[in-house]
Write a structure and sequence with these properties.
The chain is built from 42 helices and 22 strands. The chain is α/β, with parallel strands linked by helices and 1322 residues long. It is elongated. It is found in: Membrane.
């Protein structure tokens, strides 16, 4: 299999491995990448190789070893294994070491306010105290600046290393999940879904990236709180306990929040699983959904699950809003309570006391109200995810098979089955031989290496050659021989790139026959001892089928034991041994001649003669007969892929020689340049009216004004108290000029004498009012913001889903399922949780930074002089960073898609991968996909740190200028103003770079919005409803006319139907035949308008192009080649719109002989079907699809090779039901089995998109040079004679007047409304 990766040889070695210490601390080694990114768009080739210690295989193997040991220990101790234990044992040493960085950082945070206090003490004593030492003050100012630099460096070292630790755990866990997925047995696969596994890989493992950031604060928070409390006791005495009490109360509140988060997370994850599983089914079965006109039903189903999911997300977002608001206002409340208690206890306010206390509370506030609760929240969420992953890792596995078997002599190869008992359906025996099913009893021995061609072909994204070689070395002669034997030479010759042409996900640009032959060629190319071939002849026409049997099965493989499941009974004579199964039991076995005396075998052949001629006869209920290669005793079955089988189209996509097929699969779109204002407006207006959005602006400004005024009031209070204590104002301008409103706080005239004492009541009341306003406004704005953003996510998801459902089928052919699911899982996950939090956080931090600069500018106006150049440097740095950062984030998103595509493709072909013993190779390919994503993620982390270090450099410069500037202007500075400015300036470290990085993060996350919005604007097919409404009983007759119809699947592709002119009369039965790629299914696509045809298609006189798609499609029934059932009840699969009574449903099931099967189910019609209806066999699923058609009672029925993959008994039942229930309907039948359509009124023969022949079968068979005649002759003399006889009988038995009347009806209808011409040959 080819992985869509760039050649790693083109990428460069990772420079961080060889960088020096200085370069590692300041991330200087990223310089060349930023230079490249500033000049041009970055591509995958620009990324660096993943570091050896970050490789997926290495990390996964390490964690897997610890998990295996834990499972063994748990088994010995008779307890369930704990995944958390394995994680702790694997990572505790390296993670604890990282804690040293954060311990030193938080220590400096506690020491820094003490240094600030000493600096303020200088201003309180200057110029009145002669002992005040200016050099000492400069020393304290220098210490504040140096501690700021160390604070920044330690902060970034810590976060870089914890992010890398989280990344490693995530990578290791993804490796283990994929490894487990490759080992799941059939019972385990029934317990999980593709959606759940995708959700584990997209959302659950991301919790490890988040939890590692905060985990250290669980022990550091209480420790830091204790240290701060001791310092505050020394500073303001017992009053500090009042403030600390608030902090202590916050901890249990946060614990409750954490539990609520945990509950909501579990509910949200379960609903997300359902939604993504449903999405996976919708994308896989999109053709059926469109042909049935079921889009509205699935829109309602998905929207309902999404509504429940968003309800939980909204609740958790409100909790987050309260969390964030409490972080925003907690410090204000704590300081208010502490200082109020301090003043009311009789103490006097002093600037050094106020701002040291403010800074100390600020230091611990961040830890206690943000990091500590975040740690609790993330641990709660992660434990839920760990439990989900653990449950998955403990699912049952297939019995391990040896991967490297020695080559066995052909005569020694053996499959021995004796008294075998399994849970049987037609898939069971081959599944048991392959080790896919656990046997209950009996003996099953296999000696020799197996290879397997599945019944439903599995094609993965890559070239045709890579699909055939499947990891084996290319041996040209052998390869050419296999292509010839599998009838692929002609297809390859028509391609400009030959076998190097890229095929899309699920073989999107191949016909059913081409997929089947490539699937067979893959098995034939392997050097196996025993070949299990599960009905490889059913999807091809008789000529190709004979070629495959003679040249491949009895040609290239003639010296190998072969177990062949087939419905083509004409080949039984060539078998060395035949086994007949009936309802899971063997009823006969032996050679063809030995079985001539067997009643069961003779009845089988007789049924074949009755129904199909001796060639393609009927068969025992429940099981097809076996054609078995030499020297094997064995059996048959028809194996469906275990999970997520490719539900690829009913419509035949353009034949392989189309130009499109030779082009590489479309690369996932990746935008360039900045995220525009328009996108932000689209995002915000999706969740709220613009009036509400406008009201958020004053709400935010008011909240932050109250926030700043509270601190300003404290500074003013402290300064006034200082003046009051000194008994007079200092000389010079009154202090109120340093403040924005110019009012003297106690109402005294500016130049008047100060009062003997301050009005304590006034100061406390105003202070309390400002505190209350800060709290109230802070909570309101957070709640409103989160409400708007979660509603935006819900609205955009629904719009994206609706747009996807309305997009043409071509969109799904060009885009792998993993790529589409990535938008609905990862990108929507970002919109649901991370983006709202980041967006609100950015707004709050932005306002705080602007507040710091405003306060500093009012206190020291000249500080704007250095701020201007610093701001210019910042703008350049941000622009320089974002040019690279945006590309890296987009690369991270697009390199994530191959991980999901590879997983999805692997699950579809699980049985084949295991049969070929290719698990290790597929694991390596998954690791390669992961490593590619890791390269992008590593650059995303390191470039963010590069930027943050430099931003903190700007902040350190600003703090240094402010600190030394205050000392330089000491004659004009009040202690309160100095305290306010410096304490605010110190908050810039961390906060400024965090805010700017959050702005960059918002912009990066907006790429998820961009990707979602891109899907809301997909090209749409025609309207579901139009003003043209036919009568309710339309089509009453069911006549169909194609008038000069040309058809292609897109405007860029060549025509697949050319100048088609056909009249199909009311109630006429028309068979449609032709070689692979002739355009048979394209004709049906044109009829259902899966792409818009050029020309006129009319049904009962109404032009289909003028009708709504639902009006058109819901009035026709289709029985598809690949039966599609959806997760849900039997009832909803039969009657999704609840239009029929129970009696109708049971009658329909009885008519297709499924009533007994459904009655045996636990809840009958209300029984929930597994994903893709995997608790029914292929034949039973096909019968359910037939029951749907019976219920719909439409006058037009289309059968698209519906019996290609079912046994003759089911085929016979389907044909009989169609003849009885749809006698008065127009029936179009596409078939490879000529016996299926030989009874039709007329047969339409297509070749290369044109009509070659169109007439009654008997008439066409009179032309010995005709295409149909040649196709009949290629079935073999016995079968051909039978077909000739049947056509003749039908012709003779027909009521000629009746037929003439039908044709005359058609001509009258044409004369009434439509000009029609048709041609019988070209």
């Amino acid at each position: 299999m080819e992985v869509p990766l760039q050649d790693p040889g083109k990428r460069r070695d990772n420079p961080s491995a060889s960088a020096n210490l200085f370069s590692k601390i300041f991330f200087c080694w990223l310089g060349p990448l930023f230079k490249a990114g500033y000049g041009r768009r970055l591509e995958e080739d620009d990324m660096y190789h993943v570091l050896p210690e970050d490789g997926s295989e290495r990390l996964g193997d390490e964690l897997q070893r610890y998990w295996d040991e834990e499972v063994l220990r748990a088994k010995e101790d008779l307890r369930p294994p704990k995944l958390t234990k394995a994680l702790i044992q694997c990572y505790w040493k390296s993670y604890i070491f990282i804690g040293v960085y954060i311990f030193l950082e938080e220590t400096i945070k506690v020491v820094q306010p003490v240094l600030l206090g000493q600096l303020i003490v200088y201003f309180e004593s200057y110029p009145h105290d002669a002992s005040a030492s200016l050099p000492e003050a400069y020393g304290y100012a220098g210490a504040v600046c140096v501690s700021t630099v160390f604070l920044a460096l330690l902060h970034h070292l810590y976060f870089y290393h914890v992010q890398m630790a989280g990344m490693k755990i995530r990578i290791a866990m993804c490796h283990m999940i994929y490894r487990k997925a490759l080992r799941l047995n059939s019972k385990a696969l029934a317990k999980t879904t593709t959606g759940q596994i995708v959700n584990l890989l997209s959302n659950d493992v991301n919790k490890f990236d988040e939890v590692t950031l905060y985990l250290h604060f669980l022990w550091l928070g209480p420790l830091q709180a204790l240290a701060v409390m001791l310092l505050l006791l020394f500073l303001i005495g017992p009053s500090c306990l009042a403030g600390m009490t608030v902090l202590v109360v916050l901890i249990p509140v946060q614990t409750v929040f954490g539990r609520l988060f945990s509950t909501l997370r579990a509910q949200t994850a379960a609903l997300a699983d359902d939604r993504i599983r449903m999405m996976s089914e919708v994308v896989s079965g999109i053709r059926i959904i469109k042909m049935y006109g079921w889009e509205k039903l699935f829109t309602e189903l998905v929207n309902e699950v999404r509504r429940k999911e968003c309800s939980r997300i909204m609740k958790s977002s409100y909790l987050r809003a309260l969390n964030m608001a409490s972080f925003f206002v907690a410090n204000k409340v704590i300081v208010f309570i502490a200082l109020s208690a301090y003043v009311l206890a009789g103490n006097k306010m002093a600037a050094s006391t106020v701002f040291v206390a403010l800074s100390l509370y600020g230091a611990v506030r961040l830890t206690i109200t943000l990091f500590f609760p975040s740690a609790i929240e993330k641990v709660s969420e992660t434990l839920i995810s760990v439990r989900r992953i653990r449950s998955f890792l403990l699912l049952e596995e297939v019995v391990p098979q040896p991967t490297d078997l020695p080559e066995t002599e052909s005569k020694d190869c053996m499959v021995q089955v004796q008294d075998l008992k399994c849970y049987w359906d037609k898939s069971s025996l081959l599944g048991a031989i392959l080790g896919e099913l656990n046997q209950e009893s009996g003996v099953l021995k296999v000696k020799g290496r197996l290879t397997y061609a599945s019944q439903q072909p599995w094609i993965f994204p890559g070239t045709i050659r890579s699909n055939i070689l499947f990891g084996k070395a290319l041996i040209p002669q052998k390869y050419e021989r296999v292509l010839q034997a599998c009838a692929l030479k002609k297809d390859m010759a028509l391609l400009p790139d030959g076998d190097l042409s890229v095929i899309g996900d699920r073989g999107a640009n191949l016909s059913g026959g081409q997929k089947a032959r490539i699937n067979l060629a893959r098995a034939v190319y392997q050097d196996a001892d025993i070949y299990l071939l599960d009905d490889p002849l059913s999807a091809v026409d008789s000529e190709v089928g004979r070629h495959l049997f003679e040249e491949c099965i009895c040609g290239v493989l003639k010296k190998k034991p072969r177990i062949l499941v087939t419905h083509q009974l004409q080949y039984l004579k060539a078998a060395h041994h035949i086994l007949v199964l009936k309802e899971g039991s063997m009823v006969a076995h032996g050679t063809y001649s030995e079985l001539q005396g067997s009643v069961d075998f003779l009845s089988l052949l007789k049924r074949g003669e009755d129904e199909e001629g001796v060639g393609e006869g009927g068969e025992r209920p429940e099981s097809p007969p076996l054609s078995l290669g030499r020297s094997c005793s064995g059996s048959v079955a028809s194996l469906s892929p275990s999970l997520g089988a490719s539900l690829h189209s009913l419509t035949e996509t353009p034949p392989l020689h189309d130009e499109e097929a030779s082009k590489p699969m479309a690369e996932e779109s990746r935008s360039e340049g900045t995220i525009g204002l328009r996108l932000y407006l689209q995002y915000l207006t999706a969740g709220a009216h613009w009036l509400l959005l406008l009201s958020l602006i004053p709400l935010n400004l008011l909240a932050h004004t109250a926030y700043i005024l509270q601190d300003w009031w404290l500074a003013n209070w402290a300064s006034e108290q200082g003046r009051a204590d000194r008994g007079a104002h200092p000389n010079g301008a009154p202090p109120n000029e340093a403040h924005p409103n110019g009012a003297h706080p106690n109402g005294a005239p500016p130049n008047g004498a100060p009062p003997p004492q301050l009005d304590l009541h006034l100061y406390l009341v105003v202070y309390a009012g400002l505190t209350a306003a800060s709290v109230a406004l802070g909570f309101v704005r957070s709640l409103v913001f989160f409400n708007v953003l979660v509603r935006s996510a819900q609205s955009l998801h629904n719009a994206m889903f609706t747009a996807m459902l309305r997009s043409p089928v071509r969109f799904f052919d060009l885009n792998p399922i993993g790529r589409i699911l990535n938008r609905f899982s990862k990108d929507i996950g970002q919109l649901d949780s991370l983006l709202p939090w980041t967006f609100v956080d950015f707004i709050q931090v932005l306002l705080q930074v602007l507040g710091v600069i405003a306060v500093a500018a009012v206190a020291i106006p000249w500080i704007l002089l250095p701020v201007v150049p610093l701001f210019i440097i910042f703008l350049f740095l941000r622009r320089y960073f974002l040019r690279t950062s945006r590309d890296i984030k987009r690369l991270e998103s697009t390199t994530r898609s191959p991980v999901f595509s590879h997983l999805s493709s692997s699950l579809q072909g699980l049985a084949t991968i295991r049969a070929f013993r290719a698990q290790h190779r597929f694991q390596e390919m998954f690791d390669a996909c992961q490593d590619l994503h890791t390269e992008a993620w590593f650059l995303f982390l390191t470039t963010s740190r590069w930027f943050a270090v430099r931003l903190d450099g700007i902040c350190s410069t600003f703090i240094a200028v402010t600190a030394f500037g205050c000392l330089y202007l000491r004659d004009d500075m009040e202690p309160g103003a100095v305290g306010l400015v410096l304490s605010y300036a110190l908050t810039l470290i961390g906060m400024f770079q965090w805010g700017v990085r959050q702005s960059a993060e918002v912009e990066n996350m907006m790429t998820s919005v961009e990707r979602v919005v891109e899907y809301t604007q997909l090209e749409s097919e025609g309207a579901w409803e139009t003003n043209t409404q036919p009568p309710p009983d339309w089509p009453a007759n069911g006549s169909i006319t194609f008038d000069r119809v040309n058809f292609s699947y897109s405007s860029q592709e060549p025509l697949v139907l050319k100048n088609l002119n056909v009249v199909i009369s009311s109630r006429e039965k028309v068979g449609i035949v032709g070689r692979t790629g002739a355009g048979k299914s394209s004709l049906i696509s044109a009829l259902f308008r899966l792409a818009e045809p050029d020309g006129r298609v009319t049904i009962d006189g109404f032009l289909t192009s003028e009708l709504g798609l639902h009006t058109l499609r819901q009035k026709m029934s289709i029985i598809p080649q690949d039966p599609v059932l959806f997760t849900g009840t039997v009832r909803t699969n039969l009657d999704p719109f609840s239009r029929h009574t129970d009696k109708d449903l049971w009658n329909a099931l009885q008519e297709v002989q499924m009533k007994g099967v459904v009655e045996e189910l636990p809840c009958k019609l209300e029984t929930m079907l597994a994903e893709s209806g995997s608790n029914f066999s292929v034949g039973q699923k096909q019968l359910v699809c037939l029951a749907r058609a019976v219920l719909r009672k439409n006058r037009i029925l289309v059968i698209d090779e519906a019996t290609a993959n079912v046994d003759p008994r089911t085929d016979s039942l389907i044909q009989e039901t169609i003849r009885e229930k749809f006698d008065d309907c127009t029936v179009l039948t596409i078939a490879h089995r000529l016996n299926t359509i030989i009874h039709c009124d007329r047969i339409l023969v297509l070749e290369a998109g044109r009509i070659r022949e169109f007439d009654e079968p008997h008439v066409l068979l009179q032309d010995r040079h005709g295409v149909l005649y040649q196709m009949v002759e290629q079935t073999g003399p016995v079968e051909a004679a039978s077909l000739h006889h049947t056509a003749s009988q039908v012709y003779m038995n027909k009521s000629r007047p009746c037929l003439s009347e039908r044709l005359r009806d058609g001509e009258e209808q044409a004369a009434r409304g439509t000009r029609v011409s048709y041609e019988t040959s070209l």
